[in-house]
Each structure stands twice: as structure tokens, then as C-alpha cells.
Predict the 3D structure of the following.
Amino acid sequence: MATINPLLVSLDIKSTDKVISIKENGNIDSNFVITHLIKQILFENNKLCFVILHNTLGHYHNVGKRLGYDFLKQVEEGCIKTIEPLKDIVEDIGNGTNYLIDDKEQIVKALFTSIKNSIEEFTATTPNRAYLIIDDISHLLDLGIDLKYIISFINYCLSLINDDRVSVVINTHVCSKPDEIICNNLNYVSDVVIEVLPLKTGISREVTGVMTIEKSGKAQVTQFHFKAYDKGIKTFHLGESVYNLYK
């Protein structure tokens, strides 16, 4: 990160931010937040366990190239460990295994075991921070996993921050009541809540959408307009608004 990155400056994520939730509302994509956070994680020589449920490895590699990092090279060098449940499901079709077992609780337990093993390997071999990013957890609902098991899975993942060198980032898209429940649970335990929303006035050439950033313990939310470009994001400060943390 040789030059100042406007979005990362706006996000202002610190090592003390242990739980970060990203809320995607309506017809807008919050993926740019994740790809920029990956840039910061790699720049700081930290490690990443990345659970991919939404996009492909190729997507993150292509975006990373535009942002100045080589995602696949970092995977090859062991700085990033990827877990791709949907890819595993496709590969398991017809080969005698049954990833989509009837016991949905077992699915999330198996997924967490993979995550835990990756994080523990990082923390045992490096003094740097280890991050878990899940993009996005809403897709567990698409696999037919009950909401109660998804909430349990989130709690499993949050137990990882008992190690002071571990942070958890979870992205969710909100378009249903179960999504709202997941999001509300995350908001309650997060040190930072990032929300990405479309413009109320519709599409604009000058602005792509609105991003709000809420820091734990503060009664204010920082708001930005943002504009998406091919090689990054520009943010435009909207000031701070008083916010009811428990609305």
C-alpha cells in the first residue's frame, strides 16, 4: 500500500477490531470492502483464512491484481488459505461422498473444523495476526441449513477471537427475515459494523452508493458516498450522524 488508499482510510480498521461485520443491503455489492480488507491484511504481513461462498478464486485474483496484490501467489505461498464449500459440493456429486448430509448441524461443524485448523496453523507458526473472512454467510441458508445452526456456527467462529491475534470478518446480504436475524446477531457482537446501501434516488453517474461505518462504543455513525472505479473506490465524507445503537 505504497499510496494512500481512500477506502482503507475511511474504514480505519485497527488490530483491536476483533469482529467486523459487513451488511449488504438491496441491489448493491459490498465485495469491494472485502477485497480492500484483503489488501490491508496482506500489506501488514498478516495471514488469512478465506471462506468463499459467493464469488470464485478467479474473481478475487482479478480484483486483487487491479488493487495491487497477487491473490493466487499469496495462496501458493501459504499466506492465504481458502475454504470453498460450494466447490466441494460440486466435486462430491457422483463420487460416493455426501457433503449435503441430512444432519445440517454436522455441515457447519465440519466447516468450522476446517476453519479452526487453518487458524490454529497460522497462530502456531507466525507471530502476526490471523484473519477469518467469510463471504458471504447468507449462502448457508441456500444450502438448507437451519438458522439456529448458522447462529451456532457464528458463535463457533467468534470463539476464535479468544486468541488476541485473531480477527473475524463476516459478510452477509440482507434480503429476508432470516438474513436480518443473522445480521442483527452479528451487529450485536461486532467492534465494527460496515453497511453498504444503494442510493435512495436510484442510479447516479457520480456516486455508486452509501457506506456507513459504526464503531463499537460510539453513538455516531460515519457516512460516506462512494464511487466504484475499475481500479478502486473513492469515498466522499458525509459527516457524522447521531445513531441509535439499539434501534
Summary: Residues 2 and 43 are 9 Å apart (CA to CA).
